[in-house]
Write a structure and sequence with these properties.
4 copies of one chain form a homotetramer. With 224 residues, chain A is mainly α. Chain A folds into 2 domains: 57 residues, Homeodomain-like (Arc Repressor Mutant, subunit A, Orthogonal Bundle); 154 residues, Tetracycline Repressor, domain 2, CATH 1.10.357.10. Chain A contains 12 helices and no strands. The longest helix of chain A is centred in the N-terminal third of the chain and has 29 residues. Chain B binds a DNA duplex (21 and 21 nucleotides) through helix 3 and helix 4.
DNA sequence: TATGAATGAGGCTTCATTCAT
DNA sequence: GATGAATGAAGCCTCATTCAT
């Protein structure tokens, strides 16, 4: 509780300031994600960013350490959304491992669809970051995908799934989720977001659910 | 008879020149792919590129129009490898659609593993290209993946596969093939290349082959 | 009332900014003219220009689009001086066509002497400009010399001048005016600026004024 | 007589070689003048020059010391034409100073019209040359214009001309001659070369010939 | 003589970052 | 907090010149 020690008389002020800072950060993060997705990290200048966010160049440096830092923040922003949304989605799905896998996958896809601009940056611009940032991202990626891997492990050990390589299946699901953003220009020609998720879920579960349990997951295996 | 000698006497000269040019292009393309994969397109300076390839900066411009052009060439180089290798692999696989799918996927993976440096650039740096280059790549991607889609269509119409969305399955297979390069830093911890291909093949076929035909493809569905 | 204050309260700010910009432009234009006359357009690097103007390289690009643009601006600067000074000089000379011709010529020479550095650029570096810039200059040249041509036409139609080719005489006068800058290294050995103008005026008028009217223009025809 | 000592048996060889060298120089000089007039000295690369002259880059360096040297040679080429053609034209004009002035002017104009490409370079690119080359040109300019100045001085001392500043009139005539090349883009709209020379001759002579002698030079003073 | 592949210094330009206001 | 003018390092590219063949 680091906020308490601060004097109470200043709380209102501080709260207002914090709110303002929060608002500014969000404003900048969104502008950055939008522009970077369109033009790539290096295609966006700080001046362009300032204009897009309707602030001055100088102000950006009050909220972020620099351009690299901003990129990292944009990426972390998405990863934090994963960290928030995936576990709760898994929880809500109940105790069935297969349901949890499906829920996790859908949650991933939801976040990516909402942050389509920023999601691709993980793949595209990670080389831009220094090793420090890269390591942070790598470990966050691993952390945020843990619920998914746990569900797969549970499914396997409980006999609901055939013997599978947990890491590989998790990797595939994450790849498919990101695929929606990476190849959006192509996929959007034939699929709506919801169809993409439903079909991919069915495809993967069809591959890994024990045949004898499939009837039970008819609602996940059917695609229409 | 000045024209006769020309067609033969000068051929050696021209041939030698062409060979040298070919050699230089390859040298530069390889150096570019290597460096760009490590540091990203924007992280590589022409100076650094020249040093890596052991030539002078100026010489690069004799073979490529500029940095963008070089990036495009690197990417096209991989796509051309797809265009060469995938169809022949499919052909050699015989007439069975399932075998053809597996062969196509393996060929994709082979090329990507051989060009791991360059393969990721398609995903990472496509925004860097102008729309002209981007369109060229898009159409090459679609062209080179046609054999795969054809095999999937054949499999579906012949009843070997369950009803699937051809585009989506093709997209998934391509994504998985590229996944080996994109997440190589992570995957190599637990998998060798051959295992990756074998397991992914099994996973996908398990999802799409009609249950009654699975026994026939035991060699593709088993992972060890 | 946010709009009212703006129109007045912010004027000072805007005015100050505009004044600063004006000052910078002049500073750069002068430095550019000075250097380019000495070393030629291509002999002047942006680095050298920045040093001469005591600013950083980058700042030049805030005020001018690039090196070409700067050259164009320098040239246009002289042409604008013509456009301002020649007509008023002609006006002040009264209604006599011959007086107006003499006044126009002197005004041309004055401007060229004041911008001796820049004046030669019109002749020397026009090929450097793109066709767009070249056309702009051509049309400004024609526009700014119109008062002179008009005076010549008036003189001819009123019988004060012998029959002359208006275009040619105008061309000659402009050439002579620029000659002071073009061959300054040679002319300054024997002539002061004022003598140059006086003598050239006498020479030309002697060639074109109707003999019977010459006595009336004794003050222009005598050279000492 | 440095050519004699050389063995006589080799003379044919040497002659052939010299002829070839002469031909090459001419070929290069012409190509250079052509290109430089169109694109300016700095707008022409040695590669472009080689192509225009249908030789290799390397060969240019066998005939000229470098690019600057070539520019100097192009300019000197024109000045040498002046040195050759003007005196003989003056000679042929007889002893009358006025006729000699007119002949000199026409000779100047002829050479300039024939070398229109190169003639402008004297004005445009002289700053490009080092001081050595510039001095050479300056002194050649002064030398080649001496016949003109001599004729003017003669005319003045013999009473055929009114009192004039010899240097200035010579300067004007040279300027007018070059004017044909400098403003060719504009003048060609209304004048043919011959008209230009005739009219300018008439204009200048009208300004400097003693009125009482004018009838005698009716053929030079009339413009049609 | 003649070629043209190769070099590399130097130029123009961009843009992340700073700092006085 | 906020601005934006100013900085200057670093990048891409050109092109005069050389030299092995």
């Amino acid at each position: 509780m680091p906020s308490r020690p601060r004097s109470q008389a200043q709380d209102p002020d501080e709260a207002a300031r914090a709110a303002r800072a929060e608002w500014r950060s969000r404003q900048l993060l969104d502008a950055a994600a939008r522009l970077m997705e369109r033009d790539g990290f290096h295609g966006v200048s700080m001046q362009a960013l300032a204009e897009e966010a309707s602030v001055s160049v100088g102000l950006i440096y009050r909220y972020f350490g620099g351009k690299d830092d901003l990129l990292l923040a944009v990426i972390v922003d998405v990863l934090e959304a994963f960290a928030t949304r995936v576990p709760s989605a898994v929880e809500e799905a109940g105790n069935d491992p297969v349901e949890r896998i499906a829920a996790a996958f859908r949650a991933y896809c939801d976040v990516i669809d909402e942050h389509r601009h920023a999601a691709v940056l993980t793949y595209r611009e990670s080389r831009t970051l220094g090793s420090e940032g890269r390591n942070k991202i790598k470990s966050m990626e691993i952390d945020t995908s843990e619920p998914l891997r746990a569900a797969i492990r549970d499914g396997a050990s409980s006999g609901l799934l055939i013997a599978v390589d947990t890491e590989l299946v998790a990797h595939d699901l994450l790849l498919m989720a990101h695929g929606w953003a990476l190849k959006h220009w192509y996929l959007e020609q034939t699929l709506r977001f919801d169809d993409y998720v439903t079909k991919q879920t069915a495809l993967v579960l069809n591959a890994i659910v024990e045949p004898q349990h499939r009837p039970h997951y008819r609602h996940l295996l059917a695609t229409h």
